[in-house]
Design a protein that fits this description.
With 377 residues, the protein is of the alpha/beta class. 33% of the residues lie in helices and 23% in strands. Strands 1, 2, 4, 5, 6, 9, 10 and 18 form an eight-stranded mixed sheet that branches. It is globular, with a radius of gyration of 22 Å. The N and C termini lie far apart (85 Å).
């Protein structure tokens, strides 16, 4: 009888576990609905001179756009088609995408419930529940104080890196441009023999530049100053690791979002005779551009900043304390800051793309939908 009772208990548990594992492995066919593919030319500074241009692509993205890398590609290709038809693409174009545009490839190929979730936390819970065995393996190697967040990115890192290179390298090659591919969170990423590879070390928020042939230029540029929300699962790089890459438009440096607020990055790039600076950026929270600036969000305030939190709006702070105000210190002639827009679960978004050229600044007007922001060099 005890044996029979034991079987009565364990068999349903085994059946339930088997059912759960079967459910976790299933990936229903994706729908065909695409969000709005339209974009508007929000700023077009200067005149064509044969020296090329900095083209900011400020996309409007939603969770459903990340159902697959192919869906995301359709949307980004539509923006580039608009740019081409407007005469904004040439062999010296440097196009710039926003921070974390590659990070959310972590959601690619998952269950419909993930894209329909009402919050990021709920979406990540679905991601965890749908990948139990992979998650357990990744938890063993996870680092930082937010081990679950680390593990969720780590368990999909190899596929994310492959998708990132195929997507953005493919777009660069198809449209014959240099492409600053926003950023992506990966463990110990590096380019080996032309291929973006991941390692077993800590996660970094990195940006990679792709040349006109679709191949990576240089190594992934790691973020030096992660913000408070990133510090629990991404590591900080050294400013000494900042690099420039040669492009047809000139030597290009990339400062990932918050890095554009600190003098160390500009000093390092100045030593490499940088000529152009691209800043992929992401500001969460609908309407936050016009709200009081809250300070440096978990990182030390640079010694040359006297302003205190609340003295400026967020938008004013971006204009007076980041790239437009610091570009000259690097010796670069031109720079661009490009924001992500849209509604990824409950995060919201804000930000007006910024342009700076030979001491002159411009800010793109805000509006619905995707925006193109162009600066002729």
């Amino acid at each position: 009888m005890p044996r029979l009772a034991h079987l009565c208990i364990t068999l349903p548990l085994i059946a339930s576990l088997g059912g759960y594992l079967y459910w976790a492995q299933q990936r229903p066919a994706l729908g065909h609905h695409l969000s709005d593919l339209r974009s508007e030319l929000a700023a077009n500074q200067g005149e064509p001179s044969g020296r090329g241009n900095l083209l900011g692509i400020q996309p409007e993205l939603f969770a459903s756009d990340y159902q697959s890398s192919a869906r995301l590609r359709l949307k980004l290709a539509a923006y580039l088609e608009h740019a081409r038809s407007a005469g904004l693409l040439n062999d010296k174009t440097v196009a710039v995408l926003p921070e974390h545009i590659g990070t959310w490839l972590v959601a690619s190929g998952e269950k419909p419930e993930l894209y329909q979730a009402s919050s990021v936390n709920q979406a990540m819970a679905w991601l965890a529940a749908s990948n139990p065995l992979r998650l357990l393996r990744a938890l063993v190697a996870a680092k930082g104080s937010e081990r679950l967040s680390d593990a969720l990115f780590r368990m999909k890192a190899q596929q994310m890196a492959s998708d990132y290179q195929a997507l953005f390298g493919g777009l660069a090659k198809e449209y014959g441009i240099t492409l600053v591919a926003g950023s992506i969170v990966l463990p110990q990423p590096q380019v080996v023999d032309g291929r973006l590879e991941t390692g077993s070390g800590p996660l970094f928020n990195v940006s990679l530049v792709f040349g006109r042939d679709g191949a990576p230029l240089g190594q992934p540029q790691r973020k030096v100053f992660p913000i408070r929300e990133e510090q629990g699962f991404t590591a900080a790089a050294s400013a000494a690791q900042l690099q420039t890459v040669e492009t047809p438009a000139g030597r290009l440096g990339v400062l990932v979002c918050a890095d554009s607020w600190y003098p160390a990055g500009y000093q390092q790039l100045a030593q490499q005779q940088v000529e152009l600076i691209a800043v992929p950026a992401f500001l969460t929270g609908n309407g936050n551009w016009d709200k009081p600036w809250g300070g440096y969000n978990g990182a030390a305030t640079p010694t040359d900043v006297q302003l205190k939190p609340g003295e400026l709006s967020e938008g004013q702070a971006w204009q007076r304390l980041s790239m437009p105000a610091r570009l000259a210190s690097s010796g670069a002639a031109a720079g661009i800051t490009v924001f992500m827009r849209g509604q990824l679960w409950d995060m919201g978004s804000a930000g007006h793309s910024l342009l700076s050229h030979d001491g002159q600044q411009a800010i793109a007007e805000d509006g619905p939908g995707a925006r193109l922001v162009n600066l002729w060099l």
